[in-house]
Amino acid sequence: MTQDSSVLQYLGKSNSACLYCNAPSTCVKLHALAQGLSPEAYEALVFGGWRRSGTLLYKFILPETCCPAYATRMPIKEFRLHRSHRKILHRLMNFLKTGVCPDKNISYFDAGLETVSKKPVNYNAQISTNKAFSTCLSINQNPSKAKYKRYMASRHKKLQKMSENEVDEYFLIRKKNRIKKHKPKAIHELLKFSGKDWKHEMHFKFLKGDRETSNEMIESEYKLYKKYLSAVHKISDYTLSSFIEEMFTTFLESSSKDGNYDRPCKGSFHLQYWIDDTLVAVSVLDILNTSISSAFFFYDPDYKFLQLGFYSVLREIQLCFDYAHSHIPTIEYYCLGYYVPSCKNSVYKAQVPVYKRQCPINLTWHKLELVKTKLDESLYSILGENKEQKNVDISRLKILLNKEVCYFFTFLQCNKNVIVNEIQELANNLGSEAVEYITVLLNNNE
Known about the structure:
- It is a single chain.
- Helix content is about 35%, strand content about 20%.
- It is an alpha+beta fold.
- The strands form 3 sheets. Strands 5, 6, 9, 10, 11, 12, 13, 14 and 15 form a 9-stranded mixed sheet that branches.
- The protein is globular.
């Protein structure tokens, strides 16, 4: 069997300091080093709960780690823009228009991306009584309410000239016209931030995120990231080489149509957010076959009052829609890293019901409202109905042996010291889909 281009060097399980609760050695993760992964292979890993930092891949062992972290993804067709989303966008737009800062004391997590569903009014219903009609128009029938008084006064005036059925039809048509006039804007309309005489201008740069990037881009982002780490995570000793390794080292080659990177297809990219001449935020994105995965996001703490983290989610969702309609029609999902129930920084992910959480045992996806009770009772919970893990077929696992690829049981004949249970655990954590794409290089195998 010839060597596969998607090779994963398995490094094993390790304990480390937890970034969520700051415990010294209670964070338990699997680690692997990507020596080259195709977009298909990496997407299979993302859907299996893995994330990356540079070329280092990791996945939490939820039953053992101190702060269980659940993989999340959102089917973009299920996303709906709601009032709380528009509040975030209007906050930013008003700042750009007027230059006046909103309340800087607002908590970064006060305005979650909550979804509110409302039952549509059925305008085709037959209206037989005044009570039913006013209910249809969503009018509070309390006689002391001013809106109801105005409605009744107007209705009484119309009844002097028209029949009751004609009056009913008149108010229904007026209601329909009002709704049509004030129809909520789509997300792409609300994301247009420019206008004559605005105090500030917001613009974006979409750039390749690899080691061929210009030194100027690396320096500007490194300066911003150090400022972010110091203010948000209280980390001051972070080197430029570490930043390049994490943010600009990737196993995904950037592709484009006709060599034009204004219309990129797949790969790792940086979406820069600029206000005037100031770089205020950066999203590190991996564009894959059927999804866009948000690998990192960092921002200027001086602009915390604009809630740029929430705004970046909306911007990246719109990017998914743009790709689905033009560059990559197969884009279906938006992946936003881990949801950690015990971490305040993950609160906003719990307020978007269309985000789905992954069961750590069966790797199945579940809406939060269906599993919230389980997560409220315990930070670690099996979200699916099946409590027992179904083993991935280990015979399909490909191993790199002496620069040749072989299936696991062939490899086992040459390596009697291999612990089969550990390899089975690895296969289960990779997932059945990823096993089909990936060749594994074991740490003890040359």
